[in-house]
Design goal:
The structure is a homodimer of 403-residue chains.
Chain A: E1 2-7, H1 15-30, E2 34-39, H2 45-56, H3 62-86, E3 91-94, E4 101-103, E5 112-115, H4 118-125, E6 129-133, E7 136-139, E8 145-147, H5 152-163, E9 168-173, E10 194-196, H6 197-205, H7 213-222, E11 226-230, E12 239-242, E13 255-259, E14 262-271, H8 276-286, E15 294-300, E16 303-311, H9 315-323, E17 329-335, E18 338-344, H10 354-363, E19 371-375, E20 378-384, H11 388-398
Helix pairs in contact in A: 1-3, 2-3, 5-7, 6-7, 10-11
C-alpha cells in the first residue's frame, strides 16, 4: 500500500516525539508499505515566528510571512528524515516546492491548484521514504513560497494522497479517533471504527476539533480514505473517514456534538415587508458572520420576530451590523448562555422518528429546546448552556451509543 | 551606487539588532543607493539546529543538514524584509534559489558555480531592496538546497557583488575594520583605511578573524571592493580591501598578526635519503594537515632534522601520521608553547631591510626566534608563547604603526 501519514505540531513537538514518529513510520515501512509523511512545524515554532514578525509590523507583508513560517516545517522534515536515515532507511525531505505543490497567490491562505507528483513518484520508485514539509507550496506565477493557512498540513497530506492515489491518508494527532461524543463529558463515549465524510463534516462544524472541515471536504472531493489516529498510541486503530458506500452498517446516529461558542440573537418588532429578512442576512453575510440557525415567528400587526445563532467570535461585528437596521427593528437582545447540541448520523436519511427521540430524551430531563434545525443527517437544538453536559449524556444514552 | 551589504549572525542576533540593521539599510537607501542585503541566521540558531540533528545521528545526511540549516537565513531575510517594508520601503526577501545561486553537489560545503542575476536585477529595477538569505544555494542537477559551509554568507555577498557588478560589498560584523594589530594586545593599534587583498589574506591566515580567506580570495578573483565595518558603529568608515593598484601610498608594513594555535613538530634523526622529506609531507598533506613553516637542518652521519609547525587542531592526526614513519625517524617531539608573530605589508616587495628590523626589535627584547619564514609580503617568526604580546608590541612600535 501507499500510505500518506500526517503528523501535527504536537506529534513532532519535541526531539523525543520526532524520534517516536520515526519509529511509527519505521514500523509501517517494515510492513512493506510505501510512505509519504507530511509534517507540521514543532509546536510553538509557528507562533514564535509570528510574534517575531509582529514585533516589526502589525501588518507584516503576507509573502514574507510565508517565507518566514514555511521554515518551521522544513526544519521538522529534515530532522525526521535524518532520524529515519539513521535507522538505515533511504529517505528524502521535500519542501512544498519539491513535492510539486502549486498554489494560487493568496499568501498566508493559499489554495492548492495542482500537484506535480513526478518528484515524489521517482523517490518512491527509488525506495525512499518521503518527508514533506507540510502547510506550504509555491505560487504558480511568482514561484514564491506560499502557505495554506490553518490546517494547512492536513490539507497538504490529503491533497498529496488524492493526487498520487494513495490507499490511505492517516492523520496523527494526540487523539486516537472520532468518538460518539466528547469523552470528557460522557465517559461511556465509544470510538467509531468508520464514519462518512458528511457525518465528519457535521461533527467538525459542530465542535469536534480533531479534523478540520477544509481537509475533510477535500478528502471527500478527492475520494481519499482518511484515518484519524494518535501518534501517542499508534497501536490503536483509529477511525476511518470514508464515503458512505464503504460503510455497510449505517447507524441511525453516529455521534453527539456540543458547541458552547454560540450566541442567540433575538430581533423583535422587525418591520414585516418583503426583502426585510433578506436584507438583514445579506448584511450579516457580507460581514462574514456565520449565521447558523434561524427561526422567524409569524407577523403580528406588521411586525415579526427573528431568532438566529452566531459564533461567539462574531458577536461584536454582529452588533455593528444590527445597528445599521435600528430604524426597522424595535429591539435586539443577545443571549450567550446557550449552547447547541446536535445528533449526527447518515442513517437518519432512511429512518423516521429520529428527531422525536431526541426531543423526548431532553424533555424527560426537563430541558427546554429553544431552536431546532435539521438537515438530512443532523438535528441541532439550542438549549440553555447549563444543561449542556446533561443533554449530551441523555442523548448519548437515548441512541444507545455506548453499546 | 549598487551596494551589497552583508550582516552576520551577531549583527542580526536579536529582534532589536535586526531593527538596527533595517535602520542602517534605510540610511544607505535614503542616500540614493540600490541595496542588496545578505543575512546570516540569528546567532545561536545554526548551532541549535545542528544540535537537534546530532541528537538523531552522529553523521546526519549532508543534504538534510542543508535543508535544516538553510531555514535559519530564510527566517532572518523575511524578518528584515518585514522590518524595512514597515518603514515604507519596497522590499523582497530571496532564498539562495531565488537569488539565482547555483552550486555544486558538495552538500554542507558547496561551492558557488554560477549566479543568475536576472531575478535580482528585475527586483532592483522595480525599486526594491533585496534581502538575500545567505549561506545557501541550490544544486545544479538535483535542484536541492545546499549550504556553503563556514563563512558562507560572506561568500554569498562577495559572489553576488561580483556577478551583479556592485560598486562595493560591505561586510558588517561587530568589529569596525582591520587594525594594524589586535587592539586587545596593543591599545595603540590603528584602524587601516585601505589594505590590499594579499595583505588581508596573509593577515587572515595568520589569525586576524574579521574576514575569512575564502571570501577575500573570491573578492580578489572577482575584483570586488570589500569593506569591513561594524553594524554597531555604522557611522565609522571601516577598512576597504581592494587591489594593490588602488592603494596609492603603500606602507612597508601594514599590520602585525599573532597566531597562538600552533604546534612546533621536531623530527630528529631522520634517515637522509632522496624522497624521505617528500614522503613525510605528502602523508601529512593527504591527512589534510596544514603544514606551515618548515626548517631542515643539514644532514650529519646520514641523519637530518626537520622542524615544522601545524595548527593545534591538527595535532592528534599529525601524531598518527608520524607513527607510520617510526622506522625512519629516531625521535619526534612536540612543543605547543610557541606562537607565530608575522609582519605583513605590500611595501616589503620594494624595500630592503624590512625583516632585519623585525629581528632587531625582537632581539632587543631578548626574544629568541626559533623558525623564520618569509613570502613576498610577509615575515613570520616562531617564538616562545610567553613572549607573544611583548613581541607584537615591539614590532608595532618598530614599524611606527601607531603613527
Amino acid at each position: 500500500m501507499l500510505k500518506v501519514l500526517k503528523f501535527g505540531g504536537t506529534s513532532v513537538g519535541t526531539l523525543e516525539r520526532i524520534q517516536n514518529v520515526a519509529n511509527i513510520i519505521k514500523d509501517i515501512r517494515d510492513e512493506g508499505h510505501d510512505v509519504i509523511a507530511v509534517v507540521s512545524a514543532m509546536s510553538g515554532e509557528t507562533n514564535k515566528l509570528i510574534e517575531y514578525a509582529e514585533s516589526f509590523s502589525k501588518t507584516p507583508v503576507p509573502n514574507e510571512i510565508d517565507m518566514l513560517l514555511s521554515s518551521g516545517e522544513r526544519v521538522t522534515s529534515a530532522l525526521l528524515s535524518i532520524a529515519l536515515n539513521e535507522q538505515g532507511y533511504k529517505t528524502t525531505s521535500m519542501s512544498g516546492r519539491e513535492a510539486g505543490i502549486v498554489t494560487d497567490n493568496a499568501h498566508t491562505r493559499a489554495r492548492i491548484e495542482s500537484i506535480d507528483t513526478n518528484n515524489m513518484k521517482n523517490a518512491i520508485a527509488d525506495g525512499k521514504i518521503i518527508v514533506v514539509a507540510g502547510f506550504q507550496g509555491v505560487t504558480e506565477d511568482t514561484q514564491r513560497v506560499s502557505t495554506l493557512g490553518r490546517g494547512g498540513s492536513d490539507l497538504t497530506a490529503v491533497a498529496i494522497a488524492g493526487a498520487i492515489h494513495a490507499d490511505v491518508c492517516e492523520i496523527y494527532t494526540d487523539v486516537d479517533g472520532i468518538y460518539t461524543t466528547d469523552p470528557r463529558i460522557e465517559p461511556k463515549a465509544k470510538k467509531l471504527d468508520k464514519i462518512s465524510y458528511d457525518e465528519m463534516l457535521e461533527l467538525a462544524s459542530l465542535g469536534a476539533k480533531v479534523l478540520q472541515n477544509r481537509s475533510v471536504e477535500m478528502a471527500k472531493k478527492l475520494n481519499v480514505n482518511l484515518v484519524s489516529r494518535s501518534s501517542f498510541t499508534p497501536e490503536v486503530e483509529g477511525t476511518l473517514i470514508t464515503k458512505e458506500e464503504n460503510i455497510m452498517e449505517k447507524p441511525v446516529v453516529s455521534g453527539i456534538a456540543l458547541d458552547k461558542n454560540q450566541v442567540r440573537v433575538g430581533m423583535y418588532g422587525v418591520t414585516d415587508r418583503p426583502g426585510m429578512a433578506a436584507g438583514i442576512f445579506t448584511s450579516l453575510a457580507n460581514a462574514n458572520i456565520n449565521v447558523d440557525m434561524i427561526v422567524q415567528t409569524v407577523a403580528v400587526d406588521g411586525k415579526t420576530s427573528l431568532d438566529f445563532t452566531i459564533p461567539t467570535t462574531d458577536w461584536e461585528i454582529c452588533k455593528t451590523v444590527m445597528n445599521t437596521f435600528k430604524d426597522d427593528i424595535e429591539k435586539v437582545d443577545y443571549n450567550e448562555k446557550i449552547c447547541k447540541v446536535s445528533i449526527v448520523g447518515v442513517g437518519m436519511k432512511s429512518h423516521t422518528g429520529v428527531a422525536s427521540k431526541a426531543f423526548s430524551a431532553l424533555a424527560s430531563e426537563n430541558i427546554n429546546i429553544r431552536i431546532i434545525s435539521t438537515s438530512e443527517i443532523k438535528v441541532s437544538m439550542i438549549i440553555e448552556e447549563k444543561y449542556a453536559e446533561l443533554a449530551v449524556r441523555a442523548l448519548h444514552e437515548a441512541y444507545n451509543l455506548d453499546k
